[in-house]
Each structure stands twice: as structure tokens, then as C-alpha cells.
Fold:
Amino acid sequence: MLYLCEMEALRTFLPLLTTLFVLFSGYSQALNEITNAPFLKSISFKAIEGKHQFPLVQKGESFVLEFDDLLAEENDYYYRIEYFNHDWTPSNLFKNEYLKGFDDQRISNYRSSYGTLQRYTHYELTLPNENTQFKHSGNYMVSIYDSSDELMFRRKFLIHENLASIEGGVFRSRELAQYSSHQTVQFSLNPVGFNLRNPNSDLNIVLLQNEQWDAIKTISKPQYVIGQELHYRYDLPLQFEGGNEFFYFDTKDSRVVNPSISHVEQEDVYQTYLFTDAERKNYPYTYNPDINGDFAINTVQGQDSAIEADYTQVYFSLAKQYTLKEEEIYIYGKFSNYELKDQYKLTYNPSYEVYEGTLLLKQGFYNYKYIWKSEEGLDKNNVSGSHAATENQYIILIYTRLIGSQHDALIATRTLSSFEIEN
Structure:
């Protein structure tokens, strides 16, 4: 009898276990930005007044998510919002504790392309809006679903407050071996809008290089404290490879060539052939202004780039000798969300001794680089080389759990540039 009761209890409990497993599996998948739909292109996510495609806004400010659907069928897409801790682990907050209003709403702002060879539907989502507002600062994720509830893509966004001031700079590494190739971020923090109980454990600090989530450093304990100021003057813990300036091309006018475009052909869509790039690993550093991997949609063949910019098939080529190692070369930039997918992988052409690849991209100005992957792992600067003089952008994010709260508030941010790097 006892055995039968235990079996009955197990049968009752199993569905609950299954539900919990699915729930937490879904959360674990939410930690990274992903793109599942290859027909959704030109995903852009930034503050309305921002220049960079990195949605970091002050509490109450607006930002916009844009993307194109190359199926051009005016499909229905819906958005959902999730909230996370400073390290992108799931928050314990319920949805009504971090959202005012509701999500799971259809994106109603969409328009069809006009006068383009490649037809598409352009979608725009502005947040916050009349249906969805945010109660807290911190880490959020927006996920886009189709009408069949299939996940199309998800992107992170950050809302911050101004409860502390940050001063800092970018320096050369003090390690002799990395003096010419690495950069170190050093800064001080002064809490002005809250009480800091334990400076060694109450703060969680994240540093990003060029807005890339796969290039971050984290730290919590300051090196020393002077009065109210917390100083983070470490070298190795906050050290980054300098890398090299990004390559670039500009396709705002598909009818002409420029210093980065060899020639253009018109077929079903425009075909844009870039000049062959050289491997720069053993070359000396040369300053070349870039936008740190970003891209900007633009066209001179219409008034509204959102719906009048056309798509062009862009041909990339990298002059590099083939090695016997199991190596892979990828095209890398904000346009691909820095993802390493097969569509961004180059193939080797032994006839010309170059790696080749093509991508369908909307007209505009693009930064890109080539990165190297092997069994040893990913090396972003194996092809391009690394220099301390390279201009990079660093974002400092300061998180804390304020007294009486159950979430990690983003209390301060600061953006630094290595343009005038210090010794």
C-alpha cells in the first residue's frame, strides 16, 4: 500500500519536474543573444538619439529595435521582455515586478520596401511604449517571436541610473611582454546617490570592449579606497588585447566604386566586389578611423534609408596562405552580431590563395574584420595582429543590489576611448 502511494505521488510530481526543467532550460538559453531566422536581416538596436548600436539608455529614455524581413509578406511578430541579474543569470523577480503594463504584443509598426531590387518588410519597435514600461534599471532581454511562437532572435539591452560618478582612462600594459599589444582600463568610482555598506563585495563591475559581450572583464573588489572613492588600478585583471582597426566598406551608392570596392554588377540584386584584404598580423600598426565594428544603414538613392536602401551581395576575400591546421576564418562585425555561423565562414580558394565569402547586406557603411578559429579556440587577432595604439571603446557598467531590493540595479556607466592612450 505504501509503495502504491509513493508511485502515485511520483506520478503527480513528475509533471512539475518536467515543467521546472523546461522553464530553467529556457532561461539558460536566454543568456546569449541568438539569431535563428536567416531571412531577418539588418537587426539594429540602439537609443533613438544614439550613434552606436548598443541599447544602453538612462531610465525613462527611449530606444528602438529595427529589422527587415526578406520574405516581404508582412508577417506578424511579437516581443517579450525578460529581466536578469548583473551576470545574466535569471532574476527572481516576477514580470509584474519589473514591467509596468505588459509584453507579448504584436509589432504594429512595419512598412514595405520602396523602389528596391530586393523586396522586404521593415519593422520598428520603440521601447518603452504605451503598453510596456520598465520599473528598474539593470539587464533586460527582448525576444522576437513569430505567429507560430517560434523564437526568431533575442537581443540584450541595458537601462541605467546615475547614482555614482566614474573617472578613468585607458593605459598601456605595465607588463613588458604586453606593452605594445595590450590595453588596460583603470578608473575610480565615487558613490553619490546611495549608501555603500561593503565596498569589497557590494559592487559588481563589468567592462566591455567595443560593445562585444564575448570580450568582457568582471571585477568587484577595489584595489584601494580613499575616503568615499573606490580605485580600480589593476593591470592584468582589466587588461585587453588592443587588436587592430577594422576594415570598412561603404555601399550607400550601389552604382559607383570607392577605395574599398573593386567593382559593382547588377543582377537580381547588386553584386559588390571588395578589394582583397591582406593579413596584417606581421604588419606595423597604421591608424585607420573606424566605428569599432559597427554599421550604419544609409543610401543616396532614396530619402528614407529604412525602406529605400537596397540589398547587395558583398564579396569578401582575404589573402592568406593555407595551413595544414584545422583552421576556420570568419567575417566578424556588428552586422553579424559577432556570431560565428556557417554563413560567415570563408572557404579557401587554392587557385588564388585567398579565403572567400559572400554576404547579403543592406546599403550602408560597415566595419568588419577576419578572425581565426581552430581546435585551440578562438583568436580574434591572429589574422589582424594586436597593437596597444589601436583605438577601442570601453564601457564600464556598475551594478549593486540596493538596500531593500531584490534586483541588480545598474547604477552608473562610463564610456572611455583609447584614442589618446596613456603610458
